[in-house]
Amino acid sequence: MTTLLIADDHPLFREALRGVVTRLMPEARICEAENAAALYALVEAEPDADLLLLDLNMPGVQGYSALVHLRASHPQLPVVMVSAREEPAVMRRALDHGAMGFIPKSSDAATLATALRQVLEGERWIPEAAFAADPIADEERAIAARIRELTPQQFRVLQMLCAGLMNKQIGYELGVSEATIKAHMSAILRKLGANNRTQVVLMTGKLLVDPDSTAVMGG
């Protein structure tokens, strides 16, 4: 039985995706997540899933960093990005960070079905427009490589740090002590080659969809 994971915060879009998948593969089992925490729990619970359809701008997901992390921690899971953003550079960056495909949300049902079928057969599905964009910069590629070295828990701490949470708040959210978070933070600094939290936020900001936007910094 084919298992597909859908991660998107819009119920109507999840319903539309579910409808297309059901018509294409009536026997498929579909599991859904509506935020970052649910996404990571779902991927852990479904290690044998055949495909993840991941919204690029889901709450709690810092740009391409979730894609980078998931490709490192679950290399057997093909990830197809789904987004309302259709600029060639946005698509190209997703593919360069390991996505098996990129499906614009404006795609019709026939295009979506073709894309899903192609990826499930082990091939990439790339919109023609993506070829018009340049590859990602060396700096972005290097930061992504460092983020891939983080453990799942360290990555969650990183995401919360970039969302502006303090150590005590992160510990509360994860159900661990502040001392444990400080230990994770030290490991994050070392693996990213950063000297402080601000540098970590700025580095991770390079993986935002709009990297020039102002990053949130917590105390």
Short description:
The chain has 219 residues and is α/β, with parallel strands linked by helices.
Low-confidence stretches: 214-219
Radius of gyration: 17 Å
CATH superfamily name of the largest domain?
A: Response regulator
The total domain count is 2
Q: Assign the CATH class of the largest domain.
A: Alpha Beta
Q: Strand-and-helix sequence, N→C?
A: EHEHEHEHEHHHHHH
Could you tell me the number of beta strands? 5
In DSSP terms (H or I, runs of 4 or more residues), the helix count works out at 10
Mean pLDDT: 92
Q: How would you sum up the major sheet?
A: 5 strands, parallel
The CATH topology of the largest domain, please?
Rossmann fold
SS-based structural class? Answer: alpha/beta
The proportion of residues forming helix, as a percent range, comes to 40-55%
Q: Write the CATH architecture name of the largest domain.
A: 3-Layer(aba) Sandwich
% residues in beta strands: 5-15%
User: Widest sheet: strand order?
Assistant: 2-1-3-4-5
Shape: globular
